[in-house]
């Protein structure tokens, strides 16, 4: 999944937030993208909606794993079935599971891999990932395609924030004191990657959802 010769030393802008720039080689990115495309026919992208307003997200999404994150009028939650096809989500690709095991040090495997597709004008407002039971389990994300401006806040929505770029092949982890930091995507920068033929960005977020039986 990643270049074995590449150093695994991460940048750490704040405690618990780690970034591995360019950890996935171009070849690894293309292989992962091919896996995603192979599953997308029976596991299509769909547009979720906000619970209170019913307003559509600007991103499209799908999931891999035993559980998938969904949002609609009922609320934010994890489900075992795709909301439009009614089928179980396909398994998390083995390379992503191996990446989780190598980088997180968490004893249990991920149960969900949220796939977000950002088109030219898509963004994601500040939010916390807190629909999971083991909040001590890290969140690991992989960027594919166009560079995005990532915004990282604190433990309160209105606190100070900082921004930095996430490029194709970058891997980021929120853990420990950063696990519940607010974060979001301000915008995607067109023309910064040739990985996706039609442009845009894919973000893959690995999460542990239930308490592990350790």
Report on the structure:
With 214 residues, the chain is mostly beta strands. The chain has 2 helices and 13 strands; from the N terminus they run ββαβββαββββββββ. The protein has a 7-stranded antiparallel beta sheet, with helices on one face. A 4-stranded antiparallel beta sheet has the order 7-12-9-10, with no helix packed on it. Strands 4-5 form a two-stranded antiparallel sheet. The longest helix is centred in the N-terminal third of the chain and has 15 residues, at 26-40. It is globular. The model has no long low-confidence stretch (mean pLDDT 95).
Write the layout of secondary structure elements.
Blueprint lengths: L10 E4 L2 E4 L5 H15 L19 E6 L2 E5 L2 E5 L14 H11 L7 E7 L5 E4 L11 E7 L2 E5 L9 E5 L4 E4 L8 E6 L12 E7 L7
Antiparallel strand pairs: 1-2, 2-11, 3-6, 4-5, 6-13, 7-12, 8-11, 8-13, 9-10, 9-12
Query: H/E order of the elements?
Result: EEHEEEHEEEEEEEE
What is the level-2 CATH architecture name? Sandwich
Identify the CATH class: Mainly Beta
Task: Give the strand order of the largest sheet, numbering strands 1, 2, ... along the chain.
Answer: 1-2-11-8-13-6-3
Separation of the first and last Cα atoms? 27 Å
Number of helices: 2
The secondary structure category is: mainly beta
Number of domains: 1
Identify the overall geometry. Answer: globular
Give the amount of beta strand, in percent: 25-35%
Mean pLDDT metric: 95
The CATH topology turns out to be: Jelly Rolls
**Percent range for helical residues?**
10-25%
Write down how many β-strands occur, each being a DSSP E stretch of 2 or more residues. 13
Q: Report the sheet with the most strands, covering strand number, pairing sense and barrel closure.
A: 7 strands, antiparallel
The stretches of 5 or more residues where confidence is low (pLDDT under 50) are none
What is the radius of gyration computed over CA atoms, rounded to a whole number of angstroms? 16 Å
CATH homologous superfamily caption: Alpha-ketoglutarate-dependent dioxygenase AlkB-like
């Amino acid at each position: 999944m990643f270049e074995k010769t590449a150093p695994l030393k991460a940048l750490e802008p704040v405690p618990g937030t780690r970034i591995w720039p360019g950890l996935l080689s171009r070849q690894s990115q293309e292989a992962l993208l091919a896996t995603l495309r192979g599953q997308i026919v029976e596991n299509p992208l769909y547009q979720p909606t906000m619970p209170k307003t019913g307003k559509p997200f600007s991103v499209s999404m799908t999931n891999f794993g035993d559980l998938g994150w969904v949002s609609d009028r009922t609320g934010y939650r994890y489900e075992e079935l795709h909301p439009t096809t009614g089928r179980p989500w396909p398994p998390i690709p083995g390379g992503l599971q191996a990446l989780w095991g190598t980088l997180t040090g968490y004893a249990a495997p991920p149960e969900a891999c949220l796939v977000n597709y950002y088109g030219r004008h898509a963004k994601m407002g500040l939010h916390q990932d807190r629909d999971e039971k083991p909040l001590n389990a890290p969140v690991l994300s992989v960027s594919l395609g166009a560079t995005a401006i990532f915004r990282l806040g604190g433990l309160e929505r209105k606190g100070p924030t900082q921004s930095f770029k996430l490029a194709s092949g970058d891997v980021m982890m929120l853990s420990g004191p950063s696990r519940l930091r607010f974060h979001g995507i301000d915008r995607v920068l067109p023309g910064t990657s040739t990985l996706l033929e039609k442009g845009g960005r894919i973000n893959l977020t690995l999460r542990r959802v239930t308490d592990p039986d350790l």
